[in-house]
Amino acid sequence: MSYHISVGNNLFTLTYSELMQWLFDGKLKPSAYIQRGHKDNWQKISESEEWNVFYGNEDGMWVILKKQVEKNSFRQKGPYSTEQISFFLKIGLCSARDFIWKEGFKKWRRISLIPEFCTHPADTIRDILVQQSRKYKAGRARMIRYSPSGNIQHYPDFQTFI
C-alpha cells in the first residue's frame, strides 16, 4: 500500500514505513494532504482519522533522545504526546532503551523506566539494575580477613590469593 503526500507544490509517494519515519521525524506538517493509494479522497493529514493522533494532542509533551549509531551521537526528537510515544514503541521507531524527558524531569530517563511506557518487566528490571550500579563507583576488590585475636588484615585485591 502506498500513500500519496502533497506538501505545497510537491507530491510524494511513500510506503507505510516511510510515512511512519516522516511522521516520527516531524517532516509532515498538519497542513499536508494525504491520500491512501488512489482510492481515498485527499484530506488534511491532521484531520484524517488514521493520522490525527500525530497532531493537536497536548497531554504531557515528551522529547526522545535517540542514539544515531552511524554518527555515534544522540539526536532529540519531539515533542510527542504519550499516545504518540506508545505508537512509536509499538511499531519500532523508538525502543524502551532510548531516553525520554519532559518538563519537570531533572535528567533524561530510559523509556522503560516511565510507567506509561513500561512494555516489558524484564526491560524495567534491567534498567533499574544498571541505574543502581552506576551509583557505586567501581573500586578495586578487597578481601578482609578476620582473625580470632581481633586483628583485621586488609589485602589489596584478590590477585594476592590467586
Topology:
Layout: E1 2-7, E2 10-15, H1 16-25, E3 33-36, E4 43-44, E5 62-68, E6 73-80, H2 82-91, E7 99-101, E8 109-110, H3 121-135, E9 143-146, E10 152-155
Protein described:
The protein has 162 residues and is an alpha+beta fold. The chain folds into two domains: 1-56, no CATH class; 58-162, no CATH class. The protein contains three helices and ten strands. The protein has helices at 16-25, 82-91, 121-135, and strands at 2-7, 10-15, 33-36, 43-44, 62-68, 73-80, 99-101, 109-110, 143-146, 152-155. It has a four-stranded antiparallel beta sheet. The protein has a four-stranded antiparallel beta sheet with strand order 6-5-7-8. It has a two-stranded antiparallel ribbon with strand order 9-10. Strand 9 and strand 10 (152-155) form a beta hairpin. It is elongated and about 55 Å long. The protein starts with a strand and ends in a 7-residue tail after the last strand. 15% of the residues are buried. Residues 158-162 have low confidence and may be disordered.
